[in-house]
Every structure is written in C-alpha cells, then in structure tokens.
# Entry
Amino acid sequence: MSFNNLDTLYRQVIMDHYKNPRNKGALDGEHVAIDMNNPTCGDRIQLQLKIEDGVVEDAKFDGEGCSISLSSASMMTQAIKGKTVEEAVEMSKLFSDMMQGEEVDPEKFSLEDIEALQGVSQFPARIKCATLSWKAMEQGVDESEEA
Amino acid sequence: MDVKAVREAFPILHQDVNGHPLVYLDSSATSQTPSKVIDKIDEYYKNYNSNVHRGVHTLGSIATDGYEGAREKVRSFINASNTKEIIFNRGTTTGINTVAQSYGMDHVGEGDEIVLTQMEHHSNLIPWQQLAKRKNATLKYIPMQEDGTLAMSDVKDTITENTKIVAVSHVSNVLGTINPIKEIAEAAHEKGAVIVVDGAQSAPHLKIDVQDLDCDFFAFSGHKMCGPTGIGVLYGKRELLDKMEPVEFGGEMIDFVNLYDSTWKELPWKFEGGTPIIAGAIGLGAAIDYLEEVGMEEIEKYEEELAAYALEKLDAIDGVTVYGPKERAGLVTFNVDGVHPHDLATVLDAEGIAVRAGHHCAQPLMKWLNVTATARASFYLYNTTEEIDRFVEGLQKTKEYFGDVI
# Structure
C-alpha cells in the first residue's frame, strides 16, 4: 500500500466534512440525547435527535474523534434528516453492510456524500470509527420509541 | 549490544507490510518473539506435552520439570528469594486482581485508604476501585508533577496511617516515567501499608531486583518481554502469600478434599488452580534465557539511547507535542497538531510502521493530559535508529498529507 491508496480512505469529501462538519452543535427543545464512546480508542459522540411522528425532524452532534468518525457523523446527520425512523435504521444497516465491503443497492440507499466512506471497508481497524455515530443514532431511535 | 544479531533472532521482523519493510514500534503493547522461544514451545508440543504434577508417566515428569524449571528462571530473573514466591498466571491483570481479591478483601476495611497514581493503566486501577466500593474504602491519588513524575514529598503526604495498600506502576505505559519504587515502598512500609507494583512495563526493560526494591507484590506479563501471550507472573513476599486465601478453587491447588471442607496445597501452587499455562511458562523461561543472554543492563542502556534519539528528532518537528519526562523508558507518546492519532497511525501503517493510537488503557491519565487520545511509539532491543528515522519521515509525510487535504 502506498500513499495513493490512502487517498481511497481520505477522500476530499471526507476531509471537507471533517473540516466543516454539518449539523455540529446542540438542539433546543425536546429531543433524545445519546452519548456513545468507542471504548477501544476513546472517541466519543454526543448525538441529539428530534423525532416527531416517526420522522427525524432534526439531528445534531458534537464529539471528539478522528477524521473518519467525525465526518461519518456529519454525513449521517445530513442523510437521516427528514427520513422516517424506519428509513434511518434501514440506512444504518445498509451502511454497516457497506463497511463490511458489500455492494449497496443505490435504489435502496442514495449514498451521496456517504459513498466517500466506502474506502473505509479496506481498513478494518477503522470500521468502528465510521459506524460509531450510526450506532448512536440506532440507540436514539430505540430510546425515542420506548419513551 | 549487536542489534543486527538481535534482529536476526526475530523472524517476524523480516517482512514487508503494505509494501514496506516492517518497522515495529508497538512493543509496549506486545513484544516480538525470538526463534528460541518459538522453538521451545514447538518442542514442548512435539515432544512432551502433558499435564504437570499428576500421574507418574515419563512425559508428565518432563513437562513438570520444564514448568518448575521456568519458575526457577523467573525467580532468578527478578531476584526473589524463593520459588514459592513466584506464581504463574495469565498476566499482569490477573496478578493485580489476585492481590486485590485476596489480600485486599482481607485487609482493607471501611475508611481505609488505597493509594494510587493517576498514571495507572486500567489494570492497576479498576481492581482497586472495585475493592474500595465493596469495602467502603477511600481511593487516594498521589498528585503528579507537570512533567508526569512523582515527587517523594507528595508520596509521603498522600500515604497515611489509614493507608493499607499503595498500588503504583514501575514504568508508565504512556509517559515512560520510571517511578522510584524503592523509596515509595519505604514510605508505604513506614505507615504499615503494603506496596503492589505493576511491573508490566519495567520487567521487560530494566533489571528487576524485588528484594532490593522491597516491594510486597510485583506483577508482570510474558508477552511484553519476548515471551508468549497468556502467561504472567505474580511475585509476592512469602510471609504475605502464606497467609492469603486463594481466589481460584479447583483442581491442582488442593491438598485434601472432603465433602464439606478442603485444604490447600503449599505455595505457590495454592494460587494456581486448574491446569496451568505449561507451554506459556516454558516459553517465558526461554524468553528470560534469551534476555539474559543479551543482558538486561545492555538492553536498558540501548533503549535509553533509542528514546533519547527519538525525542531529539521529534523535538525538531513543528507541531509535535511529546508527553512525559525527559528521563524515561524506551517509548514516546505524542500528538501532531491537526492530525488525530488514529489518522496518524493509519498513515504510518501504510508505510509499514506500526504505532499505537488511542487512550492506552489509561483514560484518567488522558484526562490529566487534557487529550482524548495520543499516538505512541515504543522501542525494544530489536529496534534501530534507522527505524526511528523512517518513523520520523513518516510523521513528516503525515503532516504534509493532512496539510494538503485539510
């Protein structure tokens, strides 16, 4: 592997989300809040979701982590806004599949920026970085359904 | 020390990783294994694999001799006075938990104090947290100096008549700080406390003399000192171990078993319930033979040179922060401005350079350093200054790479 191969991991889009994260901050009003750590490396994310009538109306995050975990969180919040919780959870499952190196049906999941994270699947040690915020989102959906 | 000959002894080092010759700078996590150790384990399984201290057959006797012979090698390696003080187990974590669950449960009560430092690895912290919770005891931390060292005045101020246990690492796995164990042991003993030393990062690199240090317990791991994974050692002073209850009960550790009561074997076997880690212990014995052949003083001196060389090189790079004192064991923990340690480790890995990134099982220390994670390059007898040059080049490239894309 050379530095050229690294470019499959650190795509321009990823670096853009890392440097200019979308939806960073905290929500006002009623929302679910999830704190999740990656205990093996110390990354942490605080995710806030505003879910109304089964639809993710808004999402914001804050946290500390590497370029992969933070850009993934930024893309995730962008992707799930306006989606139903079922759609959001389905996207998370498809994202997990993508991290395992599986092809994702573009009919089911319009990837947009997230496509840039496909290269992470070639770096097994970094997959957990990419999936952290998605796991937090799934937990948030669970908690909002229990409430 | 002839580092070329040393490198020849380690087959794993001679390979390409991601298209580049491997530079292994993660020995503080797990060290590499010389052929002599691998061969010894191979020989055990090929020629005399069988259970120890049981039965009368020939293979069992050879295995028992090998296992107990390894115990004698460990005794001599750390200069314990008797093999009864050498308990084989799974590693440092198990050793410290044994002391907490046996000595700790019997000697720590409500209002008593357990004294630690904030540089402890989780394995020398959580067992004491759990004990303190169960016993309503108090955890106290010896404050650290700005450079990550301990001042003896703070040590003496923290340990009081209520202190029952002082648990401290010999060498910090993050800062490389070498703590003054002998002096801390004296301060603990003055107040009637015992000292438990986490030797995971010192036994592989420094000549250890448990009698000179006068520590009551000393725990370390085989896989950090050229031995196999899954084997470790707990040293304890005989008069303390004699009075301690085992924490694991079952086969191998008993004397007489009746329906409602049982008695234990003598030391050290009462602490070795179940079939022991026979191949692991024999492998550790071979690792000790190897380290002594090279010479522990030689190894220590060589690593000091490597660490000084690395520090000098890192100091010359803009935007690199190195943590810990100037005088240190053979490791450097650092951060590069604007590059998360994970990203740094991934880029170095693409160059065949293995470093550790994360919290190094020392989350309270990360808080003290005010970071969430760091990168660490750790050295052992087989590393070279040329490898450190490649590591430093890799860092420069990483800075440029992230400088371009960010």
